[in-house]
Amino acid sequence: MIPVKISEEALKEVKNIMENKNIPEGYGLRVGVRGGGGCSAAGMNYMLGFDKAKESDKTFEIEGIPIYIDKGHVMYIIGMEVRFHEGNDARGFIFVNPETEEELK
């Protein structure tokens, strides 16, 4: 089971980036967290990027896209959804807790 959901719009944008932005062969989508401390998710920043797989990763695949998540980050992103927002004010990926619909950075 993949611990994070990626919306259809977000998958479409990831594929677009991988095809058109010179992402090196063998790279996949890295999903993770940065910051925070201790056992709390408070102060966590969610992150997306393109990277090669590392030994400490759990590897998944969604619609042909390799997804890499560090084993230590899995517990912080379980149940999260990555969405792609395109509006007049901003454009980009956001993490959403589907249970509360709260957007997290």
Radius of gyration: 14 Å
- Parts with pLDDT < 50 across at least 5 consecutive residues: none
Count of individual helical segments: 2
Strand content is 35-45%
Major β-sheet annotation: 4 strands, mixed
The helix-strand sequence is EHEEEEHEEE
Provide the residue-averaged pLDDT. Answer: 89
**Alpha-beta content class:** alpha/beta
**Number of E-state strands:** 8
Report the principal-axis shape: globular
Q: Which strand order does the major sheet show?
A: 1-6-7-8
| Share of helix, binned | 10-25%
Give the assembly state of these chains: single chain
Our measurement of the CA-to-CA distance between the termini, rounded to an integer number of angstroms, reads 24 Å
Describe this structure in words.
The strands form 2 sheets. A 4-stranded mixed β-sheet has the order 1-6-7-8. It has a 4-stranded mixed β-sheet with strand order 3-2-5-4. It is an alpha/beta fold and 105 residues long. The longest helix is centred in the first third of the chain and has 13 residues, at 8-20. It has helices at 8-20, 74-77; strands spanning 5-6, 28-35, 44-51, 57-62, 65-70, 81-86, 91-97, 102-104. Helix content is 16%, strand content 44%. The chain is globular, with a radius of gyration of 14 Å. The mean pLDDT is 89. It comes from Marivirga arenosa. This is Iron-sulfur cluster assembly accessory protein. Residues 4-98 form the Core domain. InterPro entries: ATAP, ATAP_core_dom, Fe-S_cluster_asmbl/transfer, HesB-like_dom_sf. Pfam families: Fe-S_biosyn.
